[in-house]
Amino acid sequence: MRKYLLKRVFYMILTLFLVATITFFLMKLMPGTPYSNQQKMTAQQIQIMNEQYGLNKPMWVQYLIYLGGMLHGDLGVSFQFSNQPVSYLIASRIGASAQLGIQAMIFGVVLGIIIGSVAAVNRNTWVDTLCTVLSIIGKSVPNFVLAVLLQFYIALKLGWFPIADWGGFSYTVLPTIALGVGPLAETARFIRTGMVDVLNSDYIELAKAKGLTRYGIVWHHALRNSLIPLVTLIGPYTVTLMTGSMVIENIFSIPGIGEQFVKSILTNDYPTIMGVTMLFSAGLVAVILITDVIYGIIDPRIRLSGSGD
Amino acid sequence: MEEKIKLSPDSFEALPKAEELDNEKIAAPSLTFVQDAWRRLKMNKGALVSLVVIILMIIVAFGSTPFINHDSLVKSAPKYANLPAKIPGVPINGLNGKLKVSGEWVDEYKENNVPANKYFVLGTDYLGHSLAQRIVYGTKISLIVALVATFFDLTLGVAYGIFSGWRGGRVDNIMQRIIEIISSIPSLVIVVLMLIVLKPGMTSIIAAIAISSWTTMARMIRAETLQLKSQEYVLAARTLGESPWKIAWKHLVPNLSSIIIIQTMYTIPTAIFFEAFLSFIGIGISAPQTSLGVLLNDGQKNFQFLPYQMWYPAIVLCILMIAFNLLGDGLRDAFDPKTRR
């Protein structure tokens, strides 16, 4: 177990190092300059600015400075967001994104489990068909389309929730729904498939023979066993939520990481792009590692061998 | 105790000859793998309808190429801007050139002095482009992106997977680590980086999807190849001195075909979504080019007053996604009946 963990952590660091390197050199290849009005600036001004941001040093020195800074959590200074350090920008915005992401994950997974179980128990009835149709639609309708529709019809027309901005819980409801529908549809399909499998197995047959209630069977026997593989989906869900946050936060004007990422891309703000890229990669790598370990713990049949599986 | 039972020949009775033969006869004609899958797919109505929808969309999108040229797509006509849909002879409000303005239906075509014989089936956008033309063109872009993603899945993904699984050992280990690293970078980040380095547009979207789409396919192919490798028929082919290339092509690929088809069908909707997503947030395909994502973004800005500008592209995109998802599910059930519920 310890050997496996060490190996995984080593690969994690290697991955992050590669991402940092690739990102850094790609940024340098980027067309355009970080200065929005370079034509109006004199050569001297540009030189002063370059010196201030360390852009006049040779590229490999910049690279080493960047890597060294990152070890201390220093991600550089944003070119666009009024010269704030990127780490500060991220720290001040991560709360909203994390809250939204966690809410969407809980919303999607819990509701998905319920819908999937209901579908599996009522297999091949209209309930099942309805659940399947809903999950196909949930999987197919892009979350940004859904977000715009929710914003217009529920927030603007009906006025049930605030249209945009970030305040209390009521501000998070619509973005959570828009963001969580993807995981919801995926979970519902996944649970249904797993549960139908489990419901056909011998121990369910035995539980029925013992005279357990339908609810007892589903709750104690079927659901538990079909929940285990769901852990493997947390990684992909994290990706979905990170991707989704970029567009959902924009639509609902939420001051989060995703919104900042889009802005920094559109304005050539290299340090912010690099910082958020590193944050996303680190987040995903960590989530994958944690879920792998959890999976090994809750399902002892999975050996944590680490030898290429 | 032993008693001899006397059996005379006439205590036996011959059965009619035809019946006897029937017992041996195989009732159903033997089917090849593909025929069998097709038979199962035909029973799945949703998948079949999706297949028809997709084929129709492909025909319309690519068949429109000679009619929708780049010039007419880009040329703006401000005097026709923001006109709602008008189909001659359809007296339904919303499809007859009328638009709901502060609760009342107003004939926008009359208001803007549009010639009586001029009409736009799905209306126009804020620059006076025909929305129908733009949607067809956008669908074509989506399908091209899907096609390219499929191509890389099929070439890079399959080849990488087979090679890795076949060679095994150290090579396999290194190749798997590479995949692990690529797939632990969020594909979004890869896409964004590619878009920044290359110019936003078709090429960079395709390059980005090419880099990030094939890893799942490669993984699944490798796992299956590892199993197939130890099968007797592969062993026999090796013993007979068949070259690895031929074994891969003749024995492995046909046996992997169901995985390949199923996995491809999962790549396509993802690729289509990604293109729309990137264009929607403004870092994908940009004006004057268009795609479904660009149309959605444009439509979203005027959604309150001109809802049709967003609804039409949204509906087309959703139909496209639903069709590919349903067909994918149908193909999975058809090619891999074990997973069927």
Automatic annotation (TrEMBL), chain B:
Compartments where found: Cell membrane
GO cellular component annotations of the record: plasma membrane
Membrane topology per record: Multi-pass membrane protein
Main subcellular location of this protein, as a coarse class: membrane
GO biological process, one term: peptide transport
Sections of the chain in a coiled coil: none
Residues making up the signal peptide according to the UniProt record: none
Pfam families in the cross-refs: BPD_transp_1, OppC_N
Organism whose genome encodes this protein: Liquorilactobacillus sucicola DSM 21376 = JCM 15457
Domain ABC transmembrane type-1 residues, every copy: 139-328
Bilayer-crossing regions: 47-68, 141-166, 178-198, 204-221, 266-290, 310-331
Top-level division of the source organism's lineage: Bacteria
Cited PROSITE patterns: ABC_TM1
Protein family according to the UniProt entry: Belongs to the binding-protein-dependent transport system permease family. OppBC subfamily.
Protein name: Peptide nickel transport system permease protein
PANTHER family linked to this entry: OLIGOPEPTIDE TRANSPORT SYSTEM PERMEASE PROTEIN AMID (PTHR43386:SF24), OLIGOPEPTIDE TRANSPORT SYSTEM PERMEASE PROTEIN APPC (PTHR43386)
Keywords: Cell membrane, Membrane, Peptide transport, Protein transport, Transmembrane, Transmembrane helix, Transport
InterPro entries: BP-dependent_transpt_permease, MetI-like, MetI-like_sf, OppC_N
